[in-house]
Amino acid sequence: MDMSPSNARFRWLFLLPAILWLAGPVCAQVVNNCVVCHSALDPPYKVTEEQFAHDIHSQKGLTCAACHGGDPTKADMDAMSKSAGFRGKITRSQIPSLCGGCHGDAAFMRKYNPSLRTDQLSQYVTSVHGKLLAKGDTKVAVCIDCHGVHDLRAVNDAQSSVYPLNIAKTCSRCHADAEYMKSYSIPTDQFAKYNTSVHHDALVVRGDLSAPTCTTCHGNHGAAPPGVSTVQNVCSNCHVFQAQLYEKSPHRKAFQDAGLPGCVTCHGNHGVLHPTDENIGAGPKAFCTQCHVSGDAGYSAAEKMHDSLRQLEASIKSSDQLLQKAESSGMEVSEARLELDQARDSLTKARVSVHVFQLGPVEQDVQTGLKVTEKTTKAGKDALAEREFRRKGLALSLVFIFATVLGLYLLIRRIEGPSH
Fold first, then answer.
1. pLDDT, averaged across the chain
2. 198 and 123 within one domain
3. What is the DSSP-derived secondary structure letter of residue 320?
4. 48-75 residue pLDDT tens
5. For residues 143 and 389, what is the distance between their CA atoms, to the nearest angstrom?
6. Is 153 inside any structural domain?
7. DSSP letter string over 397-409?
């Protein structure tokens, strides 16, 4: 093609695709007059453009009209007319069905996020919150209380109110408010207790996002407190092996007959502390003494289990100190140190075996560990004995060398001395 000045007009043909591509987003942008007006209002009606820009619905291309109706393209009061489908303020009792109108429609949600569940509303109506709302209690939590309103963020957004690290704080906005919860006659110390728990430590301190928070045990949309007969099923979602042992234990039937919940009878619920060997036996921190008294079979078995665990722990510590001493002296004990990890594994297994509440399985794991520590302790002692042998050999060698050098020195002096 001739690209001379006389044909310069044809150059635009090459630039046209780029111009259309750049102009596309500009043309696609439509002014949202709802936000333009509401950004100038006072709370609670104030909604800024920056705030709404973070909203997951806004990011997916939905506008205020998706929930409130109306026509956000109009800049006059016609935008909020009945003819424009304006709904106005949505009452708390209407919110679940409004949100569920989209989030319960699988075909509709597939256009935006095919992986998102669409049973939230059906779960909510079965929850404690949903049942109370159906009875006319508008104080209970609805969708916006947990997820937010005009700045609703994706669940995987660290600033989302339902991001794992933030869930407990979100629940506490109601459940830790004694005045707000007064009419429900339930405790309000759950959040304070949870902050002291091993679960909180794992989630917040160690950053393990799989660690339990409120919704892990209670559910989210179908929130319901686990009952006495089902609480161990909640715990077993994570603590599978412990739950299997508990099912075989004499405590399962005893607790069931007494109407006691399984795991939480000993460990508590919201304030689950890191368990130690002091929790079993007869000491002041022991769980066993809540039910067992001195002289009964359970009390005796608990004492023996505690003593066995302490024995293995002490044996591991003693062997480890011995191997450290040998290693710091330059002796090769790496194999023994690796073997000592097997004893630590046995101690862990023994502590888990406690949940069967029988002495035999605990003793079996302890004895396995003690056999390992016996071997590693011998390795440490042998290494230290070899060290002493080497030291003595070195000392004798030095004495012999010194004596030899001295003898040579005296011999040379005698040879080089004046002849008589």
1. 89
2. yes
3. H
4. 999 899 999 999 999 999 999 999 888 8
5. 76
6. yes
7. HHHHHHHHHHHHH
